[in-house]
Amino acid sequence: MKITEAKVIVCCPGRNFVTLKIVTDEGLYGIGDATLNGREKAVVSFLEDYLCPMLIGKDAQRIEDIWQYLYRGAYWRRGPVGMTAIAAVDTALWDIKAKAANMPLYQLLGGRSRDKIMVYTHANGADIPSTLDAVGKAIEQGYKAIRVQSGIPGVATTYGVSKGGGKYEPADSDLPDEHSWSTEKYLNFTPKLFDEVRRQYGNDIHLLHDVHHRLTPIEAGRLGKELEPYHLFWMEDAVPVENQESFRLLRQHTTTPIAVGEIFNSIHDCRELIQNQLIDYIRTTVVHAGGITQMRRIADFASLYHVRTGSHGATDLSPVCMGAALHFDYWVPNFGIQEHMPHSELMESVFTRAYRYEDGYFTPGEAIGHGVDIDEKLAAKYPYQRKCLPVNRLEDGTLWHW
Ligand code: CS2
Ligand code: MG
């Protein structure tokens, strides 16, 4: 089965999505998500100028060899742009292989390990009362796990909370917007927030929180310790990930479970954290961590150390990624949870989807392949618009982690 065409489709139905479509001489085709938020065109060029021409004439059935060709065969390895491009190829090829086998992708991976996939959604508010309302709404929608983020008194803008009170979409301006940050105000406020949430909604609901890389290890240790009475499902991205020794210091100070990895793109990024048991959940996802092929390796390695999966699932990961991720989640033995930040109706209108939400859980559906397709005609009506993620500054103007 030879690859005859590999084309990149860019669209912006409310936000940018990059989709790779691989076509074969047997008439079967597959698609993969190639979206890298705020750097979309870099991946488009990586694919169009380099990887797509290399794919023409290759046997679409040889997923492993193509993965090795694009990764091991390259002198310049890893990095988010290149790995997102490889992930798109890999996802499209798994879609094709499952279609050729006349199976939903999860069957090809080994069959399902569970009946349904628990997801967490986001509850965001400008202050504690509006955040409590958002948590209540998520509970009404059936969610069993909720990530809670709130505006902080005295801090103008913060991660996870929309400016105008509408839906939160972090890449929201043509050039980076400037946000502000105060570690002191955040640390004093956040335990109060969780105290209120537990008081109002009890202990049964799973609560999660994303620090978004902003603390030093000892500050993160303090936060984890102070959040222990509210027994979070996880505390995410507590410190920047470049220096992984930081997690050792954090781990020494708290039993709050630790999640990390949404910006990792290689199994090598995960190795030390997993083998030293410094984390509890690995957040790598299909589109940014080398597709299904590398995600399986990461998950199997993690399973040796009691680390479970918790894939990133923000809106900048397209429905194509979500579809593939749900097949992976259905199969993976050491599944933890899947993030679900719902796409808008407009975003979803461009992609047909076999996956379904019901009462806090997803199922990937029984369509062959990964079950997601793109309506190319409709996609063409929404051309690319440049959107950047914000930058962050401390109150004195010092540039900080966003
Ligand atoms: C986030 C994302 O979902 C999450 O946990 O950290 O919203 C992240 O900020 C975006 O995916 C950035 O593109
Ligand atoms: Mg995050």
Model description:
InterPro entries: D-mannonate_dehydratase-like, DgoD-like, Enolase-like_C_sf, Enolase-like_N, Enolase_C-like, Mandel_Rmase/mucon_lact_enz_CS, Mandelate_racemase_C, Mandelate_racemase_N_dom. This protein is an alpha/beta fold and 402 residues long. It has helices spanning 40-55, 63-71, 80-100, 105-109, 128-140, 183-201, 217-227, 246-253, 267-275, 291-303, 319-331, 345-349, 376-379; strands at 3-11, 17-24, 29-33, 117-125, 145-150, 178-181, 206-210, 234-236, 258-260, 281-282, 308-311, 335-339, 351-353, 356-358, 361-363, 372-374, 391-394, 399-400. An eight-stranded parallel barrel has the order 4-5-7-8-9-10-11-12, surrounded by four helices. A three-stranded antiparallel beta sheet has the order 1-2-3. A three-stranded mixed beta sheet has the order 6-17-18. α1 crosses α3 (80-100). The protein is globular. It binds D-mannonic acid and magnesium ion. Magnesium ion is lined by residues 210, 236-237, 262.
Summarize the structure.
With 402 residues, the protein is of the alpha/beta class. Helices cover 36% and strands 20% of the residues. The mean pLDDT is 97.
Compile the SSE list and pairings:
Blueprint: E1 3-11, E2 17-24, E3 29-33, H1 40-55, H2 63-71, H3 80-100, H4 105-109, E4 117-125, H5 128-140, E5 145-150, E6 178-181, H6 183-201, E7 206-210, H7 217-227, E8 234-236, H8 246-253, E9 258-260, H9 267-275, E10 281-282, H10 291-303, E11 308-311, H11 319-331, E12 335-339, H12 345-349, E13 351-353, E14 356-358, E15 361-363, E16 372-374, H13 376-379, E17 391-394, E18 399-400
Domain Mandelate racemase/muconate lactonizing enzyme C-terminal: 128-257
Pfam family, one: MR_MLE_C
GO molecular function: magnesium ion binding; mannonate dehydratase activity
